[in-house]
Amino acid sequence: MTYRSGSQIREDFLRFFETKEHRRVHSSSLVPHNDPTLLFTNAGMNQFKDVFLGAEKRSYVRAATSQKCVRAGGKHNDLENVGFTRRHHTFFEMLGNFSFGDYFKRDAIAYAWELLTAAEWFGIDKSKLYVTIFEGDAQVPRDDEAEQFWIEAGVPKERIFEMSAKDNFWQMGETGPCGPCSEIYYDLGLEAADEPGTDKPFPLDEQRYVEIWNLVFMQFDRMIDAATGGAQLTPLPKPSIDTGMGLERIAAVLQGVTSNFETDLFTPLIAKAAELSGATDLTSSSLKIIADHARAATFLISDGVIPLNEGRGYVLRKILRRGIRHGRLLGQEQPFMHEMVYAVRDEMQVAYPELIDSAERVAKVVLAEEQQFARTLQLGLSQMTNETLSSGAAAFRLYETFGMPLDFMTDAARDAGIEFDLPGFEAAKEEEQQRARASWRGGSQKSASPAFRELAKTDFLGYGGLRADGVTVLALVKDGVGVQALHPGDEGEVVLDATSFYADSGGQVGDVGWLYPTDHTGALAEVKGCTKPVQGVFAHKVVVKRDISVGDRLDAVVNGEVRSATIRNHTGTHLLHAALREVLGTHVKQAGSLVNSARLRFDFSHFAGIAPEDLQEIEDIVNAQVLGNTRVETFEDVPIDVAVHEFKATALFGEKYGDKVRVVKIGDFSTELCGGIHTKATGEIGLLKLVGESSAASGIRRVEAVTGTGSLKEFRRDFDVARVATQVIGGSSLPPAEALQQKLSAQDEELKKLRRELDQARMKSASSATANAAESAVEVKGIKVLAQRVSGLDRNQMRQLVDNLRTQIGEGVVVLGMATEDGKVALIAGVTKDLTSKVQAGKVVGALAAKVGGKGGGRPDLAEAGGSDPSQLDAALAAAAKVVEDLLA
What we know:
Layout: H1 6-19, E1 23-24, H2 49-53, E2 62-70, E3 72-73, E4 76-77, E5 91-99, H3 105-117, E6 129-134, H4 144-153, E7 160-163, H5 165-168, E8 169-171, E9 176-187, E10 209-224, E11 231-246, H6 247-254, H7 267-277, H8 285-302, H9 311-329, H10 337-348, H11 354-383, H12 386-389, H13 392-402, H14 406-416, H15 422-439, H16 450-453, E12 459-460, E13 467-478, E14 481-483, E15 485-486, E16 491-496, E17 498-499, E18 513-517, E19 525-534, E20 537-544, E21 548-549, E22 553-558, H17 560-584, E23 590-595, E24 600-605, H18 612-627, E25 632-639, H19 640-645, E26 660-666, E27 670-673, E28 688-697, E29 700-707, H20 708-729, H21 736-769, E30 778-780, E31 783-789, H22 795-809, E32 812-819, E33 825-831, H23 841-851, E34 855-858, E35 862-867, H24 873-878, H25 880-888
Helix pairs in contact: 3-4, 7-8, 7-10, 8-9, 8-10, 8-11, 9-11, 10-11, 13-15, 17-18, 20-21, 23-25
């Protein structure tokens, strides 16, 4: 067995399968294409899922990939284990070979054994390898076939072990393709044993015997019987192969180490993390975590994910903050993770050249998150009270919301002399994980409906015009089930052999229009939209007016007015994208779009709001292109490499492209890969008017615009507003907008002044009313307790009044209560600092809040609460002395 670098292993794997007539396919995005239910791409088969489900056909039947994957959220979550085991990662690469109804078990097994053991390939000692097969169950017999093929390949029978369905039966989800699998294990040797020096036979030692490759034999379609609720397995007409081998694991094997973190895929990153943090122990778990998380964050952000408080962005934020926290554990409190981005780029750019262009942008996102986390952590410290630490649920909210480390909170609780509610914390954490698992529904995706799966692709004629005459009805679908006819009043879907209707794709909505009989005596159906339930098959969503049957010939007619408005906005989107990059910088990448007949919406990566003058410049650039009436050219069936490298076409985030693509070119100004419909020249847009700019998410901006008659309506509206503004401002020499802004600003300042005066008056009145309040304080075990009802104050004023009263009484407890205008109760308690070791404000206000239907808490010296029952306010205030007495007991 010869040492191979991680890069060599990846290349040798792909090259081996190329010799077996497999198509080398580039890794897909970590954000699954058209699959919002799947959190991240987590296996090599994800990009081929529609092929396995029968919803897509490729030009090849064999493929090999090195797929970037993330398992850090949803159903598959390795996050908490990373750094503390030899083989868990958030980001990893999955090597895989696939057969789509071509070869099956015999060839898959032969290929795997040849690659692993042949001297000219990986050359692994056969005596170090074990394989497993499915032992069988009530529905599927023992996989004797696989066993026989392994023996034929050269595996001794005594090294073939049968396993249960838990380990050796794979299924895509509750329904869909499934089948038995075979796993290949490597013996790392006694030095890798779970119990050092203890020699256990295979498969009893999970640390010593490492799974390196899983061969899945998809041979059944799993369906649920509607009557019984039980599962039924039907043999697939074309069994397929899906395999997965972790690059990091096979690298450890071929490099003779026991941990993935000891391979050359990680050691340069660990060294960089040590350099940035000042750590000297290169075996530190914290360094491993930083290295792993830097890989995950770099690739996720490069693929368009940004830190957020929900969904994919939330998982990314957790990964980043966990890496940052481990840097802090090593003593580095300054931003450092953004520097790791460049180290990841340097190590991975050969296999993933897109990192060369994206690294600068990614580093900016990471730095911004580091800075924000530092501020958030500081804010979290202000929220960390004794009450919070004694409540597991509250502590978990600090953990989730502010990233407050668990060990930090447990130490703080110990220092405060209180018991940290670890069971409550773990229960809240498990509840959150259950919600995350429930939100991951990708596993339940069903195979394409038989009503669509076996249909021929629809011939799309819409680029050339609005009509497709004499087309044939191939299928009719109602409520997801194929039918032979649709009748007046029915809502369903119509599939034609050819159509002029564009289907929802690339942000452009599907066309609307009508289906007519060939004599056009009256519409058969109104088309409300068009989609592609299966790749290449167009489904027209219809409301039926006259009977339609399978086999009928009819004419498909698109609503030309709606189509024209939509394509004006679509071509405008391309111009807008190019103008944004010109003004703001080439870091701008499309992150989503919606184009319909009313307006266009365009989301893109950018780190700040756009200044009004920049928006004006962007608008001017777009309209200069419109007035130039530049020709819009389309190029069909361009090889993807030619489109990207010769045409320099921009590929859009989240889109999945085939080997041949369509290029839309607008002079020298814009070139993009796009399957949408466009104007013939930019002048047809009429005019583009920006109507909105906002934040769509952290690091993502959104602009909205209108074109054609939409822009005319916008200008008319603006003209009406300007006319009213002129009437309001009178004869000012300033432009109407500027003059109106000045007048509004002046009025706003006057309102602020009046509010300040009113607040001062209220505070003066409250101070007067409580001038002698200290005399009404009662003494409880030597401590003064003053409870007073107030009115007309805001929370800040109540806090000020508490401070004043504490000063008046000198030493003691002050409680103020107020019935608010919205029918609620506001309570605030203050304890002079010399007494907080005996009485805590949070406990006082918490006990009183319970009497008015509320709860609250805060610092030992100052705490606030709310309530819902004003009728009990006086009783609660009257109980203040007794509450303090009980706390002193």
